[in-house]
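[step 3/7] inverse_fold.run input=structure_tokens len=727
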């Protein structure tokens, strides 16, 4: 059993150790003599922490300590065990922090009970899924839902409980029959109770997107309700595990197939209380929601597409200018279909900024006035003073009622966490600034593989860190593409590296996104918007914001760059800003800070002096030239490693480049031509000279030297003679 599977097994055993006695006779797993999971105990704890919630300053644990004063041992143990189940499967909370949370709560008891060893061991695992910031911001709300589940469980008939305790689908039905719902903690509970049936996925949107992406295995989906989605996911996962025992929908080859349906992970939004001002904002903060006015909009059935929203706006808002109607369509569609659970929200009122996390989906409401509403957990009703220098401040000035400011997501997450109180930061908080040094220095392995200079490699890595995009340029054979690949694989895993090659016919539609022929269900051929390599890697980079992703663009100068990059050219210079896309104008798109570009450019094709000024401004250019470090003496070092110190190839290459001269500096020959197995043999070296090196020089000297003159001046025999003379 692998390490990951062993960790999941420990989590499974620990969850069962708590839930089995809890749901059978109400016993505590930590102190089996106490009946901590009875309905009256759950009601007592629910009244203390949920009704009314404490919105004041302080962390959840600080408030909980006060709320538990004077309680019974049973109430105290129930709080500890619910907190244990809440934090047990999280990958975004460090094991030491998990243990500290539980042992602190237990320490408030007299005498404090020890945490059983199996439960302690399970906390020392990496976890099963990331709960995101939502699982920190919403602790009281999620614990409150678990308390409601406990009360609901004991209200069921004895025979229903008995069946549900042993049958995952009867258990799922029992959970579905609750009056209230909290999708994140509900999905966590299902996984902990029956991990062989329910997947470790807490985002309901992600569950639905995964199901929809692979629904062709089923014929037709069962339905859109959460229970139907769970049934479909189970059936799909059964099919996948027959081919891949460890099928994980957050890894390839699965993740890229459903991510485009779910969007690019968590987003950040600025939502303005435009029609209600301060009074409406206070309603948001007091009641836990955000809203936008919809006096003429009405309720749309199902899951409306942008076209459905546009049709409703066109029908009901003809009194508005068409530009206003387009803007309204974008606002309504973003609020209804793009805004989702675990997204971050900010609201601005004068010089105060308020931070929240979305906890569910949007819906239409006509009470007290027609509007679209969405539930939001506000960690604090105080917010912060808006001074204008915050990392997200430039985004807060964007126009609109519903504004996608995902470019500022990292900084918004930091402020949200700070408002939670003193709860420990999530694991991904270690990189707090997009400009902090996160790329690893050159390793001995990298230096050995590229036979390079440590100082030069360190400079390149730091340059890439600062600029986010560089071009390695130089004459042919200087190892530009090889170094780009090795450098990328040193910086991150192979699954986070993509390579594309530009050419004269390459276009925006190839590189980013465009319409491609696709067979429709009716058998006819239509067109479907398909992502290109840049859009795909951006989607993946956004799911792991603190892991480097690298896109290598080979021969970047061979394409019409303004045509290929389009509006994205702006984002290369202004990371963190957003643009509207040609083919997806409803989306605000940004290039994440953890995406790096490494281009390569052959100066035999085009001098850097002729490169588009816009490209030169956006990329840092790093030369690889036979006369300079690290290419100079590269061939000699490579041969020395192989014990061939007397080889004549370095002398031949030096003589060839001396003959080409500084006047034709961009056309000197790199050592890669002479570092192949074929070059080990005399006949092989002659073939390389005849069929690789001389044709390059013939093309370069076309019009100045004829073919015979090129061969007599640069042929292998002539260069051997010059090498002998120079030695």
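[step 3/7] decode complete -> sequence:
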């Amino acid at each position: 059993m692998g390490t990951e599977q062993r960790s999941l097994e420990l989590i499974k055993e620990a969850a069962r150790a708590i839930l089995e006695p809890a749901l059978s006779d109400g016993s505590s797993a930590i102190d089996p003599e106490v009946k901590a999971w009875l309905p009256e105990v759950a009601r007592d704890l629910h009244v203390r922490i949920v009704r009314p919630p404490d919105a004041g300053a302080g962390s959840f644990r600080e408030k909980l300590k006060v709320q538990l004063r004077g309680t019974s041992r049973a109430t105290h143990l129930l709080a500890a065990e619910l907190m244990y189940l809440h934090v047990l499967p999280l990958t975004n909370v460090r094991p030491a922090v998990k243990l500290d949370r539980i042992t602190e709560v237990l320490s408030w008891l007299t005498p404090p009970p020890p945490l059983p060893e199996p439960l302690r061991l399970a906390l020392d695992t990496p976890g099963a899924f990331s709960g995101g910031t939502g699982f920190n911001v919403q602790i009281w709300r999620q614990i409150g839902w678990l308390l409601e589940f406990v009360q609901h469980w004991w209200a069921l008939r004895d025979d229903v409980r008995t069946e549900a305790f042993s049958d995952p689908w009867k258990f799922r039905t029992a959970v579905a029959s609750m009056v209230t719902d909290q999708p994140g903690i509900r999905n966590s509970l299902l996984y902990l109770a029956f991990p062989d049936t329910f997947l470790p996925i807490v985002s309901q949107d992600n569950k639905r997107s995964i199901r929809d992406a692979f629904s062709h295995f089923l014929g037709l989906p069962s339905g859109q309700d959460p229970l139907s989605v769970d049934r479909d996911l189970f059936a799909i996962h059964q099919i996948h595990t027959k081919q891949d025992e460890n099928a994980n929908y957050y890894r390839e080859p699965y993740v890229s197939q459903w991510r485009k349906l779910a969007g690019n992970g968590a987003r950040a939004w600025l939502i303005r209380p435009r029609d209600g001002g301060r009074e409406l904002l206070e309603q948001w903060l007091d009641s836990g929601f955000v809203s936008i006015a919809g006096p003429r909009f009405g309720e749309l059935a199902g899951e409306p597409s942008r076209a459905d929203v546009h049709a409703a706006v066109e029908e009901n808002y003809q009194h508005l200018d068409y530009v206003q109607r387009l803007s309204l369509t974008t606002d309504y569609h973003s609020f209804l279909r793009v805004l989702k659970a675990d997204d971050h929200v900010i609201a601005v009122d004068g010089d105060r900024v308020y931070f929240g996390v979305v906890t569910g989906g949007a819906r239409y409401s006509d009470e007290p006035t027609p509007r679209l509403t969405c539930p939001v957990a506000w960690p604090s009703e105080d917010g912060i003073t808006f001074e204008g220098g915050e990392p997200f401040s430039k985004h807060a000035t964007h126009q609109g009622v519903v504004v996608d400011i995902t470019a500022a997501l990292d900084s918004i997450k930091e402020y949200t966490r700070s408002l939670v109180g003193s709860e420990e930061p999530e694991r991904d908080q270690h990189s707090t600034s997009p400009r902090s040094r996160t790329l690893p220095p050159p390793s001995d392995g990298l230096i050995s593989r590229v036979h390079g200079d440590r100082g030069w490699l360190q400079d390149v890595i730091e340059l890439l860190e600062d600029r986010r995009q560089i071009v390695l340029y130089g004459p042919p054979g200087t190892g530009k593409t090889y170094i780009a690949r090795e450098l990328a694989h040193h910086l991150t895993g192979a699954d986070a590296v993509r390579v594309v090659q530009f050419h004269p016919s390459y276009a925006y539609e190839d590189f980013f996104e465009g319409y491609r022929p696709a067979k429709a269900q009716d058998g006819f051929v239509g067109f479907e918007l398909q992502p290109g390599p840049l859009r795909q890697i951006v989607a993946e980079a956004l799911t792991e914001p603190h892991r480097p992703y690298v896109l290598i663009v080979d021969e970047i100068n061979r394409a019409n760059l303004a045509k290929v990059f389009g509006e994205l050219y702006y984002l290369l210079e202004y990371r963190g800003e957003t643009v509207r896309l040609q083919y997806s104008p409803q989306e605000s798109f940004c290039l994440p800070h953890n995406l790096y570009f490494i281009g390569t450019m052959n100066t035999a094709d085009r001098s850097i002096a002729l490169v588009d000024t816009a490209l030169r401004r956006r990329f840092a250019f790093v030369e690889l030239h036979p006369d300079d470090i690290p290419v100079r003496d590269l061939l000699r070092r490579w041969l020395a490693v192989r014990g061939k110190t007397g080889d004549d190839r370095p002398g031949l290459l030096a003589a060839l480049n001396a003959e080409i001269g500084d006047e034709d500096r961009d056309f000197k020959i790199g050592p890669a031509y002479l570092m192949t197995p074929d070059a080990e043999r005399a006949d092989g070296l002659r073939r390389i000279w005849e069929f690789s090196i001389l044709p390059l020089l013939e093309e370069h000297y076309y019009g100045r030297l004829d073919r015979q003159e090129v061969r007599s001046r640069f042929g292998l025999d002539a260069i051997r003679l010059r090498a002998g003379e120079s030695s």
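[step 4/7] annotate
Residues 422-436 have pLDDT under 50 and may be disordered.
Residues 3-202 form one domain.
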